[in-house]
Amino acid sequence: MSTNNEATVWLTKEAFDRLTAELEHLQGPGRQEIVDRIEQARSEGDLKENGGYHAAREEQSKAEGRIAYLKDLLQKAHVGESPANDGIVEPGMLVEAVIAGDKTTFLFGSREVAGDSGLEVYSERSPIGAAVHGKKVGDKLSYTAPNGRDITVEIVAAEPFSG
Question: Is 79 within 8 Å of 73 (Cβ atoms)?
Fold first, then answer.
């Protein structure tokens, strides 16, 4: 776990455990399954026109990328309990806001905490994330979007995400 707050990612214990298990699978049985598929496809002959071989190599590349990502993420992770239900926007909060006139609900923090929930996620490092971090229910603010437009935001609700 990280002590460098700039790069720290907040994760629930459940998300940390789920990602650790995924990493262990990818580094062990998952990696071996891909190697076996590559060897099987390689034994079929001409590699230039061997779709199975190329698909397995692409899968291997994606898996190795995911392994590197997970290692880095888990090293930077701050594992903790859900934040207090105090209406203040901080990592791990489910936030309802009116953004540029449209009401939206999003998870503030890491996409990995959201898992398969389908929620939109804004990180603390995104322009909107930096703007709303530390704000509380009822606060109205504006921030400058990457396209240069000023976007208005009103925090309607903020409660701990229960996943």
Answer: no
